[in-house]
Amino acid sequence: MKVNQFREPGLEEDYVDVHYREYNDEIRRILALTESGNTLWGKREGVQACLSPEEIYYFETVDRKCFACLKEEVYQVEIGIQSAVERFGSLGFVRISKSAAVNVYKVRQLTADMNMRMQLLLDNGEKVVLNRSYKNEFLQFIKERRMQK
């Protein structure tokens, strides 16, 4: 992808134009990045780090604390699951249980589980459970993403 940058001191407002041949995941992510403040601060072992939503595999709440789970690291974040879904839903995050939301772009495989639940295998090898009460919402989210391509 070619990117052109121009500094124009006389502009009253900054703007971004996106030109594309086909609407795909890369274009959707670029547009989502321009639409909201997408950085998130997380804390791990007393150190603050700026996290990009695209590197987050899932959010999980444990003991009333919310964590952002990356490929190999886990950071405590100051937002809750619902806030994460509202803020990053356009980037692919959807609720999968009362205490978790997953980045659909990190899901490699869906497998049926007991009691109408499903197991999601993530790109990093972790497995998370999609509860049956969130199953329809998850599948609808996936269907809508396919239709946008």
UniProtKB/TrEMBL annotation:
Organism superkingdom: Bacteria
Gene3D superfamilies, per database record: LytTr DNA-binding domain
Coiled-coil residues: none
Stored InterPro entries: LytR-like, LytTR_DNA-bd_dom
Domain HTH LytTR-type, chain residue ranges per copy: 40-144
Record-level Gene Ontology MF annotations: DNA binding; phosphorelay response regulator activity
Name the record gives this protein: Putative HTH-type transcriptional regulator
Organism of derivation: Eisenbergiella tayi
